[in-house]
Amino acid sequence: MIEYNEIELKEEDYKAAFTEVSFLFDVLASTVKDVIGNSAPLGVSAGRSMAKKLPVNLKEPKMNAVFDVLKKHFEDGFEFTGDVAEEGGALQVGTCMIRDICKNQNAEVGGEMCKMFHSYLGGMVAQLSGRQARVTHSEAGERCSLDVKVR
Questions:
Q1: C-alpha distances out from residue 18 to 21, 115, 123, Å
Q2: pLDDT for residue 4 is more than 90
Q3: 8-state DSSP, 107
Q4: What's the pLDDT tens digit per position in 51-91?
Q5: Parallel/antiparallel/unpaired status of strands 144-150 and 88-96
Q6: In terms of CB atoms within 10 Å, which of 10, 75, 79, 135 comes out highest?
């Protein structure tokens, strides 16, 4: 017979966990900026590492397929829409956990945490596409616009 130890979690427990994760991510982003100065190399490296771990193998890594993989991977916390071409594209971000973390920590939307995440996305795009990629924001706010460039 298998016995289960289950914990009853309440909404307050999830809110407390989100606040703790938000605090830790804010500390990470500010520490990276203080120590390294530029979070881009770390973000790109982390994104490449993550993309290697995804259970996908794009035989022809066209950008539409790459963005489909990203949308699926991030679907629980992010809403990406937009136009994609082989040289990149413009993405609009509706739901965004990083924006929520920024708000929770009274941090600038479009600031360090966002920049680190954009680099992370760029690393994932680069790894999945087999090309150099860069993600930056052109607008930050309740809806953000991201520019994705691929070479």
A1: 5, 20, 25
A2: no
A3: P
A4: 999 999 898 899 999 999 999 999 999 999 998 898 989 99
A5: antiparallel
A6: 135
d(CA 92, CA 82): 6
Domain residue extents for the chain: 11-150
- Amino acid occupying residue 133: A
Q: What pLDDT, on a 0 to 100 scale, did the predictor assign at position 1?
A: 64
Q: The whole model's pTM is what?
A: 0.89
Region at 20 (left for phi over 0; alpha for psi -120 to 50; beta for the rest)? alpha
C-alpha pair distances (Å), 104 with each of 15, 22, 107, 114, 150: 10, 7, 8, 14, 32
pLDDT at residue 7, as a whole number: 84
pLDDT score for 29: 93
Burial of 20 (0-12, 13-18, 19+ CB in 10 A): exposed
The CATH class of the 11-150 domain is alpha beta
Rounded distance between C-alpha atoms, residue 79 and residue 143, angstroms: 10
Phi, psi of 118 (to 5 degrees): -60, -40
Q: What is the mean pLDDT of residues 131-139?
A: 94
